[in-house]
Amino acid sequence: MQAQWFNELARKRRSVFPDQFDSGRKVDDEIIKEIMINATWAPNHGQTEPWQFTVFTGEGLKKLAAVQSQLYKELAGADYVEGKYLKLQQQPLRASHIIAIGMKRTTTKRIPEIEDIEAVACAVQNIYLSVTAYGLGGYWTTGGVTYFETAKYHFGLGDEDKLLGFFYIGHVAIPSPPAKRAPFEDKVSWVL
Ligand SMILES: Cc1cc2nc3c(=O)[nH]c(=O)nc-3n(C[C@H](O)[C@H](O)[C@H](O)COP(=O)(O)O)c2cc1C
User: In terms of pTM, does the model score above 0.90?
Assistant: First the structure.
């Protein structure tokens, strides 16, 4: 494996949002399977493998759009915004695949919950990097119904589990501009 190649992959990875997708162009399911295999190779404490993914594509995207917009309507209460409802109904249809990201809690509970969540975040970074390596676009959203407590039951999750958002994937029509990061020296201190 070439370290230089990985340096470039990690540094050029960008979020690509649904409005930038070549909407209507489907990604091969075999590629999505490879990406999901990479996700399951993430580090995890205590061999809990606490990720639980649901992949939506084709008609499945319409089902997701219907479920999440309806949930939003039912649960948003005073925060309800019509534009957000319409976005939840329409935006999934711009993607090729959407992955619901769940944290399935270990039964033994030896591992603190935060570590199961961290492991799932590692899995999502594998998805981000894999999507980039395949020349596709995507992003992790924690918007919409993610943090409505009862939404998780619609994504194969139970009482102890957490819905952590959705990863949208599509072919790229409009690439994201280069991003900026603070100089790493600002974030890294050394003890010599
Ligand atoms: C945990 C997490 C949640 C995110 N949720 C959202 C979101 O709800 N909406 C959104 O537009 N972007 C979301 N993003 C993507 C960020 O906007 C994006 O990573 C950030 O703008 C940096 O851009 P980059 O990914 O191209 O480096 C999320 C990213 C992470 C890690």
Answer: yes
